[in-house]
Design brief:
single chain, 129 residues, 6 helices
Amino acid sequence: MRAGRFRPSPALPPADALRVWLAGIASRQASHYRDKAYRRHELPAVDPDRLSAFAAPSPEARLVARGLLRAFYRLRPELRELLSLAATGLSLHEIAASLSLPRPTVATRLRLARRLFARALTRSRRWPR
């Protein structure tokens, strides 16, 4: 204003004329700043909500599943079969009937399978491979 660049329109009140003049200056400065961004090697800001669609899921769940499967396959095949049948929700009577084994034998082997599986899990956590 002191340099004489502010020449208000006589049709506008002085406050409105000043607001329009300052808005014009601000828009030109922003335009110049945006046009020179390529010289500063700036990249435009990306909306983070759009980036979340491209984010890869965490590999932690896959690593845990891999460790569980590794511990599971360290068991003997008959113990793996017992654990898998118990994991599907079958009772001891149903497992014994499907494998044609006595119920106390199924209970003993299932207890052994669970204990060995738990031991294999704790061993794999202590000694990662």
